[in-house]
Amino acid sequence: MSQLSNANHPWNIVVVVSDTLRTAYLGAYGNEWIQTPNLDRFAQQSTRFTNAHPECLPTIPTRRTLHSGRRAFPFRDYRPVPWDNVYIPGWQPLSPDEGTIAEALVRQGYHTGFFADVPHYFVPGMNFTRGFRQWEFIRGQAEDRYRAIAHADPARIAGYHGREDPIRAHLVNVQPDQPEETWPTARTFRSAIEFVQQNRNNRPFYLYVDSFTPHETWEAPLHYYELYGSREEREPVWLNIPYGTIDQTPEVEARLPSVRANYAGLVTMVDTWFGKLIDTIDTLGLKEHTLVVFLSDHGTNFGENPDRVIGKPADYMYPGTMDIPMMLRHPEGEGAGRGCDEFVYTLDVPATVIAASGVEPLGEIEGQSLLPLAEGNDGFQSREYLTCRYGNSVWYKDRQNWFFGSVDFQNSRLFDLEADATCQRNIAPQAPDRITLAQERILADAGSPLQLYTRKETTDALGRPEFAER
Fold first, then answer.
1. Exposed, middle or buried by CB within 10 Å (0-12, 13-18, 19+), for 425?
2. Crossing angle (nearest 10°) for helices 256-283 and 37-44
3. For residues 349 and 339, what is the distance between their CA atoms, to the nearest angstrom?
4. What is the percent of the chain with per-residue pLDDT over 90, rounded to a whole number?
5. Is 402 helix (H, G, I), strand (E, B) or coil?
6. 237-238 and 160-161: which strand pairing?
7. Given 101, 303, 346, 438, which is the most exposed site by the fewest CB atoms within 10 A?
8. Extended beta strands in 175-214, E state
9. DSSP string, 256-283
10. C-alpha span between 293 and 210 (Å, rounded)
11. Phi/psi at 396 (5° precision)
12. pLDDT value, residue 350
């Protein structure tokens, strides 16, 4: 029985986002060395999507999509906000002229909650709390302008590599010497758990949880790190790695085992606290009344690609960045343990929320509901291809081709997915016809030529960087 035939008893809906979580670092997607028992168990209860990708990148553009239900691609009319620390095309507030998913739900009877430790959400003017009757910014991720970095213990700075100010911010904000329960990740999920406990009889509710972990900074609690790395090789801790290629920063290569161990430890930390949230839902008897979606916005790279790229630079949209986990647990158990290889987007999550709730959206919803894929019903229209924009770069995928390049289609990479599923051999010079197809479809999705934004040295009266467009 689907939600649409059960309109008198609407489902609760829970969406959990984990920032920078690599698909390849989850047991449910084939990883054999990272411990993710709760997400693996959740996958057995869910439909697991194996061709899930972002429709835009990075953090804030993707959140615009998730909160509005509309494509942020192709980043028209980019206008930076003052007092941010990221200036990149598409990184801008939710439009005040467009309704949000939460606003649609709350107007039609849902109780809504939003809990996140993602600092970028809460830069003045970002506008992401609209529609939530309960919301909380969990303070303390390293990029958060929170505690005084001058107060950092100078003796501890030597245990880290990199610029001093970010190290100081990490030390005073995250306070990595404190118990796990005090870390922002734990407090984010604990706030979400409290929301469920307090609203268990306040049906229906919509809960949106956004964990910044395992995004940088990459230091895991020691007991998680030691699952994957030795204490003797842990320091100096690289909280961040420079985005680019290993050849550009060769000294990072020797530190990658320690970096990966910290990253893996943070993945297991997310798994632990996500498991506590799911256990709360199930223990309170809400499982059969609650739709749960788990996903990431993008991944990251540790050099396992032909350019030896590390981090997630916009110029290199390899699977490490572009493959995302996405799992949907249906209240009635539909699709449990099933893998689905349809092309799906982050854009489809808000469409699923609207479909599951049965409410009228405030404006156009541009994705497709994932419910037919979980329920084995008609209603999902298979896509021939997907497109994405990240900064001044674009990406395209169909069943045969994986393409990325600049918005003016220079510096192109193309991979044949039928012969090279992990994108190790660039065939762009030998396949101009395939690049032409990718270009045509990217521009068709964009509706017109793509704007190239070039940052100028000047700022406006509010201190925002200015950009030239062409």
1. exposed
2. 50
3. 17
4. 89
5. strand
6. parallel
7. 303
8. 205-211
9. HHHHHHHHHHHHHHHHHHHHHHHHHHHH
10. 12
11. -145, 145
12. 98
Beta-bridge partner residues of 413:
404
State both tokens at 231. Answer: 């204490």
Q: Output the CA angle 271-141-59, nearest 5 degrees.
A: 75
Judge if the upstream peptide bond of residue 74 is cis by omega within 30 degrees of 0: yes
Q: Are 310 and 243 in contact (CB under 8 A)?
A: yes
Q: By the 8 A CB rule, do 214 and 270 touch?
A: yes
**Peptide bond preceding 61 in cis form (omega within 30 of 0):** no
Q: How confident is the model over 438-442, as a mean pLDDT?
A: 98
Over the stretch 46-66, which tens digit does the pLDDT of each residue have?
Answer: 999 999 999 999 999 999 999
Reported as type and span, the H/E element at residue 113 is strand 111-116
Q: Centre a 10 Å sphere on the Cβ of residue 154 and count the other Cβ atoms it contains.
A: 9
- Tokens for 287? 């499982």
DSSP string, 280-319: HHHHTT-GGGEEEEEE-S---EES-STT-EEE--TT---H
For 206, residues 6+ apart whose C-beta sits below 8 A from its C-beta are 12, 13, 14, 101, 102, 105, 106, 110, 111, 112, 113, 353, 357
Residue 424: CB atoms within 10 Å = 11
Residues across the chain: 470
Is cis: bond before 350, omega within 30 of 0?
no
pLDDT at 7: 55
CATH homologous superfamily for 3-383?
A: Alkaline Phosphatase, subunit A (3.40.720.10)
Contact assessment for residue 116 and residue 209, using Cβ atoms and an 8 Å cutoff: yes
Q: What is the pLDDT of residues 30-44, one digit of tens each?
A: 999 999 999 999 999
Burial of 436 (0-12, 13-18, 19+ CB in 10 A): exposed
Domain ranges of the chain: 3-383
Report the run of H or E that residue 369 belongs to, with start and end.
none
Q: What does the pLDDT average to over 345-361?
A: 97
Q: C-alpha 106: how far from its chain's center?
A: 24
> How many Å apart are CA 353 and CA 67, to the nearest integer?
10
